[in-house]
Design a protein that fits this description.
By secondary structure, the chain is α+β, with helices and mostly antiparallel strands. It is built from 5 helices and 5 strands; from the N terminus they run αααβββββαα. The protein has 2 domains: 30 residues; 164 residues, no CATH class. The longest helix is centred in the first third of the chain and has 29 residues.
């Protein structure tokens, strides 16, 4: 009787392990971006990086370690002040015409936030950026309700803003941008499952 119970226990454990492993395997196949996690990682890199190059490298390294993706992701900076994440098939860090865009990061100067967009499905999420030299979040205290002066803005954000200005992008461009509901991630997973018939 005890032996029979032991076998049942082994079967239950095996079933749980099979479920976990198949769920992980499916997540790896889907290559779906969690925009909220991405924004957190970009925000940390923004506070710690001392150049655009280090920002791209730090963020790409962090998200590749943290996500269930089957392909390496690299980040390319654009003349308009945006960042494009793409599947770096040849692992050279440079986006080629045949490489697939994965996500887009934009800086909303007026709203003091980062906006991440899923390039395949158009889902978008935002997060207040860490915008001061001492690493404070944009909404950390009441004094942050007013727009920051140039002296208070970190050097990297100044670079983003300069590129936007040079590209003719007004600070109000993102004011009416609609963000996706919390259910976006599962919706994206469902769409990929259906498209790949997993």
């Amino acid at each position: 009787m005890k032996f029979f119970g032991f076998l049942l226990s082994l079967g239950a454990i095996g079933g749980i392990l099979f479920y976990v492993l198949t769920q992980t395997d499916e997540a790896q196949k889907l290559d779906v971006i969690n925009l909220d996690n991405l924004l957190e990682r970009v925000n940390v890199s923004l506070a710690e990086a001392d150049s655009m190059q280090s920002l791209k490298a730090m963020t790409a390294s962090d998200i590749n370690r943290s996500q269930f993706w089957t392909r390496a992701v690299a980040i390319d900076d654009q003349d308009d002040g945006s960042l494009i994440g793409f599947f770096d098939e040849n692992k050279d860090g440079e986006m080629q015409d045949e490489e697939e865009e994965f996500f887009l990061i934009e800086v909303d100067r007026a709203g003091q936030r980062l906006i991440a967009t899923d390039s395949r499905f158009g889902y978008a999420r935002d997060l207040s950026y860490i915008d001061t030299e001492d690493g404070n979040d944009a909404d950390s205290d009441s004094s942050d309700t007013e727009e920051k002066s140039d002296a208070e803005i970190s050097g990297l954000l100044k670079e983003f803003f300069k590129r936007q200005d040079d590209a003719g992008i007004a600070p109000s461009r993102f004011s009416n941008r609609q963000m996706s509901a919390d259910s976006y991630f599962e919706e994206a997973r469902t769409k990929v499952r259906e498209s790949r018939k997993i």
